[in-house]
Design goal:
This is DUF3048 domain-containing protein. With 394 residues, this protein is mainly beta. The protein has two domains: 158 residues, YerB-like fold (3-Layer(bba) Sandwich), CATH 3.50.90; 201 residues, YerB-like (YerB-like fold). The protein is 9% helix and 30% strand.
Length: 394
């Protein structure tokens, strides 16, 4: 085991051409309401011939037929101690983790192909930060975006309805960004559990884990109902002008797994903030199954829905510049548009490289030291946005 300290370095490069799904041409007949009926007829023993455009995992043709009725859902899931274990993270195709504030991390779960198998409960849904919007913007111009509130400058009891200058810095005002993108409207793709999205898509449940949780940890959503609501609003597979959501989507490169006969690196560990050990992360490589098992604050990180430890085929440490707190409310700002260094763990090995994202809606790309784009092992992808300069032990 050795330690590596990497500093964030901004790089300049030309972008790669956008890839398209060959099958994204027109939406299928039917819609989200028929999903449950179709799902009940799926034979689990059918051959896995269909590649998920999000993470390359292979599924059956009927499962693809289900996801082709939808567009990707991106959901903010919290990681506070009192929110654990979460529901639904193990069904996500991609998961991003970053600090929300005070060293407490939060997740952005990308739910698309993995939700074809069943209706998934996702919880607890929590508020958004601007850098999560940057990542969500990679999954179409108007992805299904599920959250509960967010950093904002609104104050009902303040003069003019605006908070005092300095309370919330403009650069971290998530509501302002959502409004600018055209997401935050009454029937928009930004589905806020606190304002424009209600039952049965999202509900309050303080007893999800058995014991009563605090009110702020109680929002849970159900993917089938959320997808149905999205379709009603014009955010199904096609938009209101009959254009498929993924016509400009940049697909990552994928390869079949080739695990090392003897793993070179069997454990990855790091912290986000040194004074918040409950949010330290460890990934332990398991040769059987060629996967990384996640520990959250030193304990097995389980999905409450599956009652099993969360795992991933790929673990990416994306080093991001950290700034803050930038205002009186303690918000942090992380640079997710630009470039920096990265470590990519897969197959029991590691690749040192970099990440690049030219604009907010550009897909984050990962490259090796020769500037060749990384191909991900088919399956789950976890992206850990770690402050540049932090030590990674592996």
């Amino acid at each position: 085991m050795f330690f590596v300290s990497l500093l964030g370095v901004y790089l300049f490069s030309t972008g790669t051409s956008l890839a398209l799904f060959s099958y994204l041409k027109s939406g299928p007949e039917g819609g989200a309401k028929k999903v449950a009926e179709e799902r009940g007829r799926i034979d689990p023993n059918l051959p896995k011939t269909e590649e998920c455009p999000i993470n390359g995992k292979m599924f059956s043709k009927p499962e693809r037929d289900i996801w082709e009725k939808r567009r990707p859902m991106t959901a903010i899931i919290e990681n506070h101690l009192d929110s654990r274990p979460q529901s639904g993270l193990s069904y996500a195709d991609v998961v991003y983790e970053a600090v929300a504030e005070g060293g407490i991390t939060r997740f952005l779960a990308v739910l698309y192909c993995g939700t074809s198998i069943k209706d998934i409960r996702i919880a607890p849904i929590r508020s958004v930060r601007v850098y999560f919007i940057d990542w969500a913007s990679e999954y179409s111009k108007f992805p299904v975006f599920v959250h509960s509130g967010g950093a904002n400058n609104i104050c009902k009891d303040c003069p003019g309805g605006i908070k005092t200058r300095g309370d919330v810095a403009p650069e971290v005002d998530a509501f302002k960004m959502l409004t600018k993108l055209g997401w935050r409207v009454a029937s928009g793709n930004a589905m806020d559990a606190g304002t424009n999205l209600g039952a049965p898509a999202v509900v309050r449940n303080q007893y999800r884990l058995g014991e009563k949780a605090l009110w702020e940890h109680s929002y849970e959503g159900f993917t089938d109902k959320i997808f149905e609501e999205a379709e009603k609003r014009g955010f199904g597979f096609n938009d209101s002008e009959d254009n498929p959501w993924g016509e400009d989507f940049a697909v990552w490169k994928f390869v079949d797994e080739k695990p090392l006969s003897t793993p070179a690196y069997s454990e990855i560990s790091f912290e986000f903030w040194s004074n918040k050990p409950d949010y330290n992360v460890t990934w332990k490589y398991k040769q059987e199954g060629n996967k990384y098992l996640r520990l959250n604050g030193g304990k097995e990180h389980q999905d409450f829905e599956r009652k099993e430890q969360i795992s991933s085929k790929n673990v990416i440490v994306q080093f991001v510049a950290e700034k803050g707190p930038v205002d009186k409310e303690g918000h942090m700002f992380y640079t997710t548009v630009g470039s920096g260094e990265a470590l990519i763990f897969q197959n029991g090995d590691v690749i040192s490289g970099s990440w690049k994202k030219r604009t907010q809606d550009d897909r984050t790309r990962f490259f090796d030291e020769d500037d060749k784009e990384i191909s991900f092992v088919r399956g789950e992808i976890w992206i850990e946005a770690v402050p540049a300069g932090n030590d990674i032990s592996y």
